[in-house]
Design a protein that fits this description.
Blueprint lengths: L2 H5 L25 E6 L8 E7 L13 H6 L3 E5 L8 E8 L6 H16 L11 E6 L39 H8 L7 E6 L6 E4 L11 E5 L3 H14 L33 H7 L20 E4 L2 E7 L15 H12 L6 E2 L6 E2 L4 E5 L12 E6 L2 E2 L8 E3 L13 E8 L8 H4 L3 E8 L2
Parallel strand pairs: 4-5, 4-6, 6-8, 12-18
Antiparallel strand pairs: 1-2, 3-5, 7-8, 9-10, 11-13, 13-16, 14-15, 14-17, 17-18
């Protein structure tokens, strides 16, 4: 990215260690919330820095909804149902700039954006771990502020607007109003705001919600094909806790990184030899062919700095839109999925003692990867594995009768495990399982 493309967006850009909680991308004392600025429309850069923007939306006329519109406002629809909210990663999609007559189109737009997300690995393989919800936010006017020009102001439910902080493609929202709609869905984990616009733009609000607990908000134009890629990139930050892998050539202050080793898993001060010797960062992936092309190594430039920081591959979704996550990125995303999703769910209630005629049944999601790999189940009685029952999702108490003749109360449990080759870090691998237990006796 040249100086002209960067200068307009970097006057308040991030100037601290990537991923640091102390990072302040704005002018000292500037209030608001940190957001990531999407890269230019005619280019591949995933982002072009960060800035601080107001929590509230632009000034706009007071909303005047009719009684019928108010009745429809806040309706919740489950677009994708893969299980209980306690066991799935719940994405909440809220539309802005949709009138009552356009709500059907909002639902179509939401489904299409989810399909775009689900087409990217590792979302494709793990799409059964997600629920997707649509919340109807009824706007008094169609479209959003700043489209087509900065002088345009529309009365919308969430106050979405382009030209946020003077940057045309930066699409901001009134976060308190977003939260009002998100609160209608239990256990929201990730939020996507779809603006009723074909104009290119988006933003990444990657600070977790203190009140509702979700990981972050991505904004995107519903009618622009590139904006969906921006939203997917933002989940790399919110779910994967990944740093940006792009950098700013020719911009003062970002020529060379001289700070400590960043906490982010996908940027490092170490070259391949040191990384391998110290068994640090993505050392387990060095030399492997990556989905984004080329070999995993240490490529200089990342975390906004031209030199001094290294990224795992030459190109990936954390650097360029339209590319896959690289291998370390895939691993980090899977770790993010499992922070919210459980892969063993009790179908048979666990609150009572199961007797001879009962069956212990669990639900385990099916994966959709091209390799056909599925999750593995193993059963245990009082902690001892029942190897003949491996792979099952149900066990009849009568099948265990000979083991229950002492008439004591025993514990029957099932463990679902994900032994994906996409995870090599033992700490992450240890989180890719869940279990369910029942009390049983004759």
């Amino acid at each position: 990215m040249g100086v002209a493309g960067v200068a307009a967006v970097l006057t308040t850009v991030l100037a601290a260690v990537p991923g640091s909680a102390a990072a302040d991308p704005a002018t000292p004392g500037k209030a608001g919330v940190e957001v990531e600025i999407p890269g230019p429309e005619h280019g591949t850069a995933a982002g072009s820095g960060h800035t601080r923007v107001p929590l509230e939306g632009r000034d706009r006329p007071p909303s005047r909804l009719s009684a019928a519109e108010e009745a429809a406002d806040g309706d919740v629809t489950r677009l994708v149902d893969n299980g209980s909210t306690a066991d799935r990663l719940d994405i909440v999609v809220v539309g802005d700039g949709y009138t009552t007559a356009e709500l059907d189109r909002f639902h179509t737009d939401a489904k299409e954006k989810w399909a775009e997300v689900a087409a990217v690995e590792p979302y494709t393989t793990y799409q059964s771990l997600f629920n997707v919800w649509a919340v109807d936010a009824v706007s008094n006017e169609s479209g959003v502020s700043g489209d087509p020009g900065p002088a345009v102001v529309r009365d919308t439910a969430l106050g979405s607007y382009f030209w946020c902080d003077g940057i045309e493609r930066l699409l901001c929202v009134d976060q308190d109003k977003v939260d009002g709609y998100v609160a209608k869905v239990p256990d929201a984990d990730l939020v996507l705001v779809l603006a009723n616009s074909a104009k290119y733009g988006g933003a990444g609000y990657n600070e977790p919600s203190a009140s509702l607990g979700y990981e972050g908000i991505s904004t995107a134009s519903a009618g622009n094909e590139k904006s969906g890629q921006v939203a997917i990139h933002e989940t790399g930050h919110s779910l994967g806790k990944l740093a940006d892998e792009y950098f700013y050539p020719d911009y003062p202050g970002y020529e060379q990184y001289t700070g400590p080793e960043p906490a982010d898993s996908n940027v490092s001060t170490l070259t391949a030899g040191d990384m391998s010797g110290q068994r640090a960062k993505w050392h387990r992936w060095l030399g492997e062919e990556s989905p984004d092309g080329g070999t995993v190594g240490t490529y200089e430039g990342g975390g906004y700095y031209v030199t001094g920081l290294y990224r795992p591959t030459d190109n990936s979704l954390m650097r360029s839109l339209g590319t896959p996550f690289n291998l370390p990125g895939v691993e980090a995303m899977i770790a993010g999925f499992y922070r919210h999703a459980r892969i063993a769910t009790a179908v048979t209630p666990t609150g009572r003692i199961l007797r001879l005629g009962d069956t212990a049944k669990a639900a385990v999601p099916r994966l959709a990867g091209a390799d056909g790999r599925q999750l593995r189940t193993r059963w245990y009685l009082d902690g001892k594995e029942l190897k003949p029952f491996a792979g099952r999702t149900r066990v009849r108490v009568s099948d265990l009768a000979l083991l229950l003749l002492d008439l004591r109360t025993h514990t029957l449990s099932v463990t679902a495990e994900d032994r994906t080759p996409s995870v090599r870090d033992p700490k992450i691998a240890g989180t890719l399982q869940s279990d369910v237990s029942w009390r049983i006796r004759l």
